[in-house]
Structures are given as C-alpha cells and as structure tokens.
Amino acid sequence: GAMMPHLPELRQLIFLVALKARIQIEQHRFADAVASLQVGTALAHHLGQAPLVIQGQVAMSMEAVLCRQLRHWVQTPGSPSLYGAIAALPPSLVDTDKQFQYEADNLTFLQRLAYKRTKKQILDPAQARVLFMQKRTNRDMAVLQIVEALRHFASTHEGRFPQTFAELAMAIPDDPTTGKPFMYRLEQGTAIIESTPKEAGPKELLQYILQWQ
Q1: What is the pLDDT of residues 163-210, one digit of tens each?
Q2: Which residues, other chains included, contact 54 with Cβ-Cβ below 8 Å and sequence gap of 6+?
Q3: pLDDT tens, position by position, 114-173
C-alpha cells in the first residue's frame, strides 16, 4: 500500500533528535540529552497509539534508534543513572492489540469472506513477526534498566558487580522475549547479561558485557 505521508518525515525527525542527543551526551550535557530523548520518546509513543500496524512498526523502529543513544549514554563515563527514567516508561510504547483489532474491523465484505484463510496464511505470521519485534524493542529497553541497576550496585560496592540479581536492591524487569529473568553471570569480575529467545535466530540473541572502570 501507499506509505502514509508523515511516516518518512517522522523517521527523518527521529534521526535528527537522536543525533542531537548523541552530541549532547558526548558534550556531557546530560540534562539537555534527557530533554531530547524525552521528545523522541513522546514522538514514538504518540505514533505507537495510532490505529495502523505500519504506524506501530515505525514507532518501534523509532524506539530502536533512541535505544542506541541510551546504550551510548550508559557507556559514557560520568553519565548519571537513567534507571528511574526507564522504569517510569510504559511497558510498551506501541498498542499492537488496538492496531490488530482496527485492521480486522476495517476489512471489506469480500475480504471478510477470505479472512479466515488469509488470517491463517498471511495475517497470523505477520502479526507474530510484529509481536516479536515489539518484544525485542521492549527487551532493548529492559536490559538498559538492568545495566543501570548494575552500574549503581558497582558504584556503591567498590566497583564490584553482584554474583546474582538477588543482590540488587533495585527492582529489575524480566526479559520480554522469554517472560523469564535475563540470564546473568559474573566471570572474573565482568558482568554478562544474555537473552536467547526460543523462536529467535542468531541476530536476535543479545549479550551485554559490563566492566567497571
């Protein structure tokens, strides 16, 4: 179908917002970077509440662009913790339930006749891909919340990371792609967080390696 006219502009806008945030992080203007990231998050959230699945997918890609800046933030020496800011976000910026329902409700009569077959052959696999994309995007945000909890722990324990998550005083989220805790281990003082969802290929595996400096 035709691309909605505002989606390419929103994609361009989020890259500009992300670039601005990246420069502000590099310059240690952390309060300004937070303001830029909040603008980007509001844009993604607003689009994620729109009725069409394609709008939700673009919102997820916008969120992924912002996540890259957050990853840069947590690796920047002297950066303040984003734990509270990430914890305060909604579990997902995109309302996929509403979008799937809207598209099902707006099928024409002829489409409805073919709907059951189409749903099984085309819509269900497409929805499964969108839902996994959503879980993966939510996972990227959740793991950053854990990174911030680990950074806080190390800063108050002479640079030592915990042996297990149970030592953390801060609440941490489960892995949205598995519904279970993220895998975590400590190897010679290096903290390793991993996520290996069942249905995922090698590209969907996630590993964070943290060393205190």
Answers
A1: 999 999 999 999 999 999 999 999 999 999 999 988 767 778 899 999
A2: 1, 4, 7
A3: 666 666 666 677 788 888 889 999 999 999 999 999 999 999 999 999 999 999 999 999
Backbone angles phi, psi at 32, to 5 degrees: -65, -40
For helices 96-105 and 124-155, angle between their N-to-C axes, nearest 10 degrees: 170
Alpha carbon of 75 to those of 69, 81, 109: distances in Å? 10, 11, 54
Place of tokens 């840069």: 72
At a CB cut-off of 8 Å and minimum separation 6, what does 133 contact? 57, 60
Torsion sign (Cα): 40, 73, 154, 173: positive
Confidence of residue 1 (pLDDT cuts 50, 70, 90): very low
State pLDDT tens for residues 14-25.
999 999 999 999
How far, in Å, CA of 212 to CA of 75, rounded? 10
Q: What are phi and psi of 205, to 5 degrees?
A: -70, 145
The pTM of this model reads: 0.86
Q: Tell me the C-alpha distance between 63 and 141, whole Å.
A: 9
Burial of 103 (0-12, 13-18, 19+ CB in 10 A): middle
Q: What is the number of alpha carbons within 13 Å of residue 92 lying toward its C-beta? A: 24
Q: How many CB atoms lie within 10 A of CB 206?
A: 19
